[in-house]
Amino acid sequence: MTIARVRGIELAYSDEGTGTPVVLLHGFPFNRSLWDEQAAELRDRHRVIRPDLRGMGETPPGPEEAATMDEMARDVAALMDELRVARAVVGGLSMGGYVALSFYRMFSHRVRALVLADTRATADSEEQKRAREASALQAVEEGAQAIADDMLPKLLAPRTLAERPEVAERLRAMMRKTKRRGMAAALRGMALRRDHTGFLPDIFAPTLVVVGSEDAITPPADAELLRREIRGSRLVRIEGAGHVSNLEAPEEFNAALASFLKDLEP
Ligand code: MLT
User: Among the four 67, 84, 153, 211, which has the fewest Cβ within 10 Å?
Assistant: First the structure.
């Protein structure tokens, strides 16, 4: 395991391959192994950097009650400093996408391009915020298993759930590794995230938006909003995939990513 001491925490990360840097940010409550298939695909032509965001995977939680998306984005910038990466393609799935949008708002000059997968620009409603707090309390009291049982049916497309138990097992295994306090802090951080909708027209980086047609958490309408508001962006809809489209349909996801990255080349 590789660790960078940044901003008072020991951030675990992977750094493989050479070429244009690509930073991949995982969703909640997973870790960098969510991107194994993408790293394997990209590392011959790109330097693929994948942190475990604070409180997830092998990165311990910080002292804060709420790990905000801005905090996580600052961790990513500090990791890039540590690795001497000035600018990168920054991609995130779901919560990783919230962090990528925060990152762009704070450090747009460090973003070569954006990849926003199964994510959204909008903030939580009051009702969603209350549900986050209830889940945070549940995570602390009952642990990852309770959260996993609750989340799995929403994370995967019905067909993935019925026919590919190994995908659900992989998500469960990632969730089991996440510490209770890390889960709670990320849930509270997501509840505090700002609404980026009005900012989307100010994004000038080339942007790829990806969504699974069966995504029940951030449905295609969220992706269409991103596509509409971010000038010149490209939307790829993966038929039959749910919220974790990169894991449910790695071949289609990788093809979309590889073609987007190729078009960035001079
Ligand atoms: C994720 O997959 O990162 C989360 O489910 C996103 C969310 O709950 O808003």
Answer: 84
What is the CA(127)–ligand 1 centre distance, in A? 15
DSSP designation for 216: S
For residue 86 the two structure tokens come to 């000035």
* Ligand 1 atom with the shortest distance to the CA of 97: 3
Residue whose tokens read 């991107």: 35
Domains of the chain and CATH, by start: 2-264 (3.40.50.1820)
User: Using CA positions, which residue lies closest to atom 9 of ligand 1?
Assistant: 95
Measured in angstroms, how far is the CA atom of residue 117 from the centroid of ligand 1? 11
Contact of 94 with 27, CB cutoff 8 Å:
yes
61 Cβ partners below 8 Å, 6+ apart? Answer: 54, 55, 67, 179, 181, 182, 185
Q: For 60-93, write each residue's pLDDT tens digit.
A: 999 999 999 999 999 999 999 999 999 999 999 9
- Tell me: the pLDDT tens digits for 205-258? 999 999 999 999 999 999 999 999 999 999 999 999 999 999 999 999 999 999
Q: Identify residue 133 by its one-letter amino acid code.
A: E
Token representation of residue 82: 């540590």
In sequence order, what are the residues at sequence separation of 6 or more whose Cβ sits closer than 8 angstroms to the Cβ of residue 128? 191
Q: Mark 59-72 as b/e (b = at least 16 C-beta within 10 Å).
A: bbbbeeebbbbbbb
